[in-house]
């Protein structure tokens, strides 16, 4: 009887069984941040004067400087693994150009200018020493291609231009040589050397001042060996139209012949790229 009364009392109080709560929905995953890169310029300007105010030397280095952004905001202190990875790339890129600047003899050239002025002040009556570094940057796929010109006048009969290049793959965070992008690097290197040699021959044949002369009459005796080292020892970079290779004065011929520049369009190189190379170059 007691049991029946208790059951009736509970029913009379209107007690009901509560539903089991559902598992809470997990928070929506945040969209991955967008990491972007930009090549800016890291300028270094300096002048050297004698005690009487005579200008002895100017230095103007406009070095490439890589920056990374997360969702459009410059990364200064990385806050996520993706930002840390981006800054590792940035540091690898920038350290290369810091080393280039520190490896030069600019400080010695400044001292040389001061010393020369003390002995021969007239040497600076119409001119002064100078060192300049300028560049262009081109981005294609994951590759940043830098073409640079180092111009200097440090006395002597004439100034000098020396051309440099760097090709940096953002995905692997490495500086690479262009043949690494080809299926067969050696075959690619020789093919480009052949294309350069053909261009040189056509150029000389079309210019009256070289009438009757062959490449071997104009270039150094070992010019073919030099051509075949275009990717490792000389300036080779990309732009919107293709591959540009520049040999500075003296590298292929006399100073009077000047730098030797060659341009090869992407179409002429299309069959040589590896699959990974095509990805780096954004040719997929």
Indicate the topology.
Elements: H1 2-12, E1 35-49, E2 55-70, E3 73-74, H2 81-103, H3 106-119, E4 129-140, E5 143-153, E6 160-169, E7 174-175, H4 185-206, H5 215-218, H6 223-227, H7 230-233, E8 235-238, E9 242-247, E10 260-265, H8 266-269, H9 275-280
Parallel strand pairs: 2-4
Antiparallel strand pairs: 1-2, 2-3, 4-5, 5-6, 6-7, 8-9, 9-10
Description:
This protein has 284 residues and is α+β, with helices and mostly antiparallel strands. It has helices spanning 2-12, 81-103, 106-119, 185-206, 215-218, 223-227, 230-233, 266-269, 275-280, and strands at residues 35-49, 55-70, 73-74, 129-140, 143-153, 160-169, 174-175, 235-238, 242-247, 260-265. The protein contains nine helices and ten strands. Strands 1, 2, 3, 4, 5, 6 and 7 form a seven-stranded mixed beta sheet that branches. The longest helix is centred in the N-terminal third of the chain and has 23 residues, at 81-103.
